[in-house]
Amino acid sequence: MSALTKSVPGQLLDVNNNELLAEGTVDINFNTSPNSAGHPEYKATMTIKSYKPQFSSKTYILKLGDKISGRVFITMTPTIVADFDATQTRFTLFFEDDVWRSFEWLQSL
């Protein structure tokens, strides 16, 4: 199995009007496995600088750079109470659109 990890700036946009809602750091981990049958496996989180629990459990447009954007569903990443930080929110990202299905978008970052 091989892995690739990238950390890039990203923006969350409203799906209805493309209004910028938040900016933060997106950490992406890509794994390939012989058992994956050609399907890429991505795990990603986004950390924004403010506490925004109201963003959780909704779909947004994630914009990475000038060329890559697509729908993602986000949920709050569970934190241990001792690790709670009211100055930021960490979300788990679930990629929804076809743009995320290939490896090329990650290579272009």
Overall geometric form: globular
Element pattern in H and E: EEEEEEH
For the CA atoms, what is the radius of gyration?
14 Å
- Proportion of helical residues: under 10%
Structural class: mainly beta
Strand order of the largest sheet: 1-2-3-6-5-4
Strand count, sense and barrel status of the largest sheet are: 6 strands, antiparallel, barrel
**Rounded mean pLDDT score:** 85
Strand content: over 45%
| Total helical segments | 1
Number of strands: 6
Q: First CA to last CA: what distance?
A: 21 Å
Flag low-confidence runs: none
Taken together, the total number of domains comes to: 1
Report what the structure shows.
The chain is mainly β and 109 residues long. It has one domain (2-107). The chain has one helix and six strands. The protein has a six-stranded antiparallel β-barrel with strand order 1-2-3-6-5-4.
Keywords:
single chain; 109 residues; 6 strands; mainly beta
